[in-house]
Amino acid sequence: MKARITRKSLYSWGSAVLLVLLLALLPLYGAVYTMILVTSIIMYAALTVSWVVFSGPTGQVSLAPAAFMGIGIYTAASLGKFLPLPLVILVAAAGSLCLALLVGALTLRLKGLYFSIFTFGLVLLLRQLVLWYEVRFTHTRGRFVVVIDNTTIFYVMLAIFVVLLITAYLLRQSKYGAALEAIGEDEEAAAHSGVNVTAVKTITFGVSALFMGATGAIMATKWTYIDPYIAFDPFFSFMPVLMAVFGGMATFFGPILGAAVFGLLEELLLTQFPFYYMLMFGIILVVAITYLPNGLTGLVMKWRKGGRTANHANS
Amino acid sequence: MRILEGKKLTKFFGGLAAVSEVDFDVDQGEIVGLIGPNGAGKTTLFNLISGAIIPDSGALEFKGERLTGLKAHRVCRAGVARTFQSVRIFPNMSVLGNASLGGVFGTKTGMSSAAAATAAEELLDFVGLAGASSVRAGDLTLAHQKRLEVARALATQPEVMLLDELIAGLNLTEAGQVMDLITRIRDRGITILMIEHVMKAIMSICNRIIVLHHGEKIAEGSPAEITSNETVIKIYLGK
Amino acid sequence: MIVAILDVVVAGLLLGGIYALISVGLSLQYGVARVFNVAHGEFMMLGALSTWSLNQAFGMNPIIAMAICGPVAFAIGYVLHRTLFKRLRRVSPSIGAFEGSSMLASFGLLFIIQNVANLIWGTQTKAYTFMAYPVSIFGALFAANRLVTLAFAVAFGIVFYLFLVRTRLGKAIRAAAQDPSTAALMGVNINQVLALCFGFGALMAGLGGLLVSMSYPMQTTMGLEYTIITIIVVALGGMGSIPGSFIGGFLLGLIGSIVTKIEPGLSLAAYYVLFMLLLWIKPTGIMGK
Questions:
Q1: The model's pTM
Q2: Are C39 and C107 in contact (CB under 8 A)?
Q3: Mean pLDDT, chain A, integer
Q4: How far is CA A180 from CA A162, A201, C97, in A?
Q5: Among the partner residues B75, B87, B104, nearest to A175 by beta-carbon distance
Q6: Which CATH number do you get for residue B24?
Q7: Nearest CA of chain C to the CA of A114: how many Å?
Q8: Strand partners, B82
Q9: I need a surface site. Which of A303, B82, B100, C97 has the fewest CB within 10 A?
């Protein structure tokens, strides 16, 4: 399933590069407020695309983004004073990767629901473990995060996102992308065709987690003070799922669209109706699940195809 | 030369023995038929061989090497491929994508996507699906999907193929074509073990037949021997 | 020495009683209605905080409040199923897809309910006192309210068990739990039964929250931890096995009590390790099919 160079792909590649360039130059012509908002949107986009890298093709819903994000945040808070920023991010990514490989090896071979349950609880588990550690050993609660200027945060977040997109694209185009797709369609048939299902899923899950950890590390400075409850917040598991479901998971554009919509919406609601935004997001998720099973991009593609959607062959 | 061998294979589901103390062996180049009434344990036996499930007791050997307990992808890479009773192709992938996957992941040493695609094209031609490469697999007819599954299994370069009810559900013409396909697969040097209910097919192309009933092997022999076997007749007619 | 052991055991049973009750609720929702309700703990939170409100506004005794909180929780669960989950069931191509989408939908519900709760009650911790005097059992001291909690949890369990075994509706539920399609063919109104089960599940959660409110402080964020614990209990006891969940709840409570005695603050971690061990050894749970 190699990509062929067509006019269409040149067009999308070209616009993507253009967009990245425009964004890269944002700090020069945009207001600080805009830059911070865009940083937030890119953060959500990174979380969502990472989530889709694994949960999209396999169909296994991971509720762990908050766990990996939390590891990133706590790594930055703990090591930010001692290590330079690039190293902090690498350590955070490595830590998330290790945890993901461990979790993956334990739970990926079991029924999908167990996996979702396990990842759901992982956030709370980590929260309790870190809290216990702090109470027992360091006798402090929470830490202060080293402050970094907004422009640096913006560029680092953008860089992480671009690397993520390239990685995700290469993964999808590679034979592992085909393997993932096959696993998502029929796991047992894939195994019988020679695909090492556990290995492919675990590694993909690890790659996904790696970027979430890196994102957490750079975004940690959003909060000057963090504690286990702030760092390990189920909200950051909720948002990528919401954005992916709403935006659509078949392409990479869907999650980015979802992230943009909700990043802006969150900003709007936080300023206007700070006490209602979780309510609204919850309602949108429920409505999206019920009425938009393929997300917004799925809906758009349906309109373009004139109402015909792909049906699975009944086996 | 004995290529596949099973000794005293047993598998329980709950309290019921789906397969009980089954011994069997297959020589290279043979086409062996596996028959028996519904629920006799035929597909379970296939599942045991292919690594989909693990036997409670008993052993499996492929070319003298242990096969028992290997995971499905390892069994495949070792050289034993299978098709499924309910056709399990990847519906949203292209026909070529389906067939190539076997080549990329299922051979002993693996293949690049490009090499696998080339090999897959040849196989699609072999099974009679030439020209359908870019069709979405889920849009094929059932008969063509079955052939695609065969192509995908062939792509893994197997030495033994387990075919699960390939002919069931096909009309006379299609059935004839598939029977021809099976013999052509054998002519390529692949040993075949096939589950089938269509007696005409079994009798005409199999060298040997194994009969299962309630999880046990109750008869084994050439088609002529089996058709005159009293126990077998009683099971099929006296039920 | 005996007193110390008794201390831990009874504390475990007290905690376990609540876990058992709420877990039976989730087991009904998942085992029968196949909804993996990650918002289960939120119903519990609603039960707890409503009881607090009733206590604050009318000085109502929580035991009397059961007559209000119970039916209301049931009604909310019932309506939710008949509207949201029934529709999801209809549009899902398979049971697996339904389990996934209903879980995500309940994820949405979690955030909706928590936000609504924040609007009503705010984020501060609340508490009220009820029967907070100590009672002595073989020399060990226990709060009377916790003993009452245990008594009610066991009572509800028994009542529900009798309901399942002795009444026609109960049998219909058990049939639906075993095999929904066959039950439907036998004349069981499946949609009704599923909605009732979901309602009963919410009822258990609400009552569980009410019982918790008698002895513990509460806040709008309390639900999530109970949801996790309940999920582990249901997995421990065997997905969809109601007696399994009941026993599993007590078991987990005991384990939690022991762990808290040794190293306070690690009870959730201990449950998790247990969960992981279970997934390794017997993924179908102690009484699973």
A1: 0.88
A2: yes
A3: 86
A4: 22, 7, 18
A5: B104
A6: 3.40.50.300
A7: 8
A8: B162
A9: A303
